[in-house]
Amino acid sequence: AKSRGRNGYQFYSRDMDGEGVERLRMEALLRRAIERQEIFLHYQPQVEIDSGRLIGVEALVRWHNPELGQVSPVRFIPMAEDTGFINQIGEWVLFEACRQMVRWDEAGLVVPKMAVNLSVRQVERGAMAPLVSRALAATNLAPRRLQLEVTESVIMNTGDALAFVHELHAIGVGLAIDDFGTGYSSLAYLKQLPVDVLKIDRSFIKDIAVDSDDEAIAIAIIQLGKSMHLSVIAEGVENEEQAAFLLRHGCTRAQGYLYGRPVAPGVLLEEWGNEKNE
Ligand code: C2E
Ligand code: CA
Ligand code: CA
Ligand code: CA
Q1: Where are the beta strands (DSSP E) in 112-255?
Q2: Where is the EAL domain (predicted)?
Q3: Hey, whose CA ends up nearest to atom 21 of ligand 1?
Q4: Whose CA is nearest to atom 2 of ligand 1?
Q5: Using one digit for the tens of pLDDT, what is the confidence trace for 63-121?
Q6: Cα-Cα-Cα-Cα dihedral of 70, 74, 78, 80, to 10°?
Q7: Residue 138 and residue 165 in contact, taking contact as beta carbons nearer than 8 Å
């Protein structure tokens, strides 16, 4: 972090350290990022492992600021959650992701499903269901082509999670539990919810073939999904060995660098537009 101005003057009070200044500056820039069109989406393919068929994409938000360069969502999403700005970002992401599905449709690439991440703050705030309905109505996207991803902690710690999940289910959109295995889901609670997908967290996939504990956890999640009639997808699949392991244990779907990095919509169209997707 910068501690001095260009001429060596200290331009802030002593008790505000460089990091604090940096953060305030970043927060201020983030608040204007949507209107300045610095926020955009990349899309990462989700595939059926054995056929390589495209089954969906996950929308991942990106921020490019002229001064800061590319800022990772790992940095700016928590910041946006603290300031409440996540609600505007989240709304923009939802609408843009739905619009993109229609653009691909028109360009001849039918992506079966769009997965969109929701922040805990969006769910806590309530009124997600009407927002989702508006996004679908505005774009004329079929509800079954949209899937919302929330982490386990959102489900477990939000007072109104039950209502939230049932409202989304009633609209007809899918729900995936993200980073599954890293939180503390009560299985009894989960069982009551109309959830569609468990996403095995990348941390358990990473050391497949290296760490037998992680292998055991991955297998347990696959089994759990089976017995609860949920579809299971593994995230962070980077090599064939991991893919083969998953397939061997009954997980047929995956997302990860092995199949494709998050890319701009035009790149996804180029890569999946013709032969690959029939
Ligand atoms: P996530 O939802 O768990 O998303 C998966 C992250 O793993 C993405 O990082 C993706 O680029 C990365 N990834 C995918 N495949 C691989 C792989 O094979 N290897 C490795 N090493 N990484 C892989 P990204 O795009 O940096 O996003 C980080 C996190 O930021 C997301 O984690 C999610 O929690 C949050 N995020 C991203 N977009 C949004 C959004 O639109 N809304 C909200 N609320 N959060 C978002
Ligand atoms: Ca996700
Ligand atoms: Ca995830
Ligand atoms: Ca993860």
Answers
A1: 114-117, 146-151, 174-180, 197-200, 231-234, 253-255
A2: 23-276
A3: 236
A4: 117
A5: 999 999 999 999 999 999 999 999 999 999 999 999 999 999 999 999 999 999 999 99
A6: 30
A7: no
11 lines ligand 1 (CB under 6 A): no
CB 141 within 8 A of CB 102: yes
**CA separation for the pair 201, 206 (Å, rounded):** 9
Reading the block at residue 277, the tokens are 């997707």
Confidence at residue 220, expressed as pLDDT on a 0 to 100 scale: 93
Rounded to whole angstroms, the Cα distance separating 168 from 170 reads: 5
> Computed over its alpha carbons, how large is the radius of gyration of the chain?
20
How many A from CA of 216 to the centre of ligand 4?
18
| DSSP state letters, 218-249 | HHHHHHHHHHTT-EEEE----SHHHHHHHHHT
The more confidently predicted of residues 44 and 191 is 44
Share of the chain above pLDDT 70, in %: 93
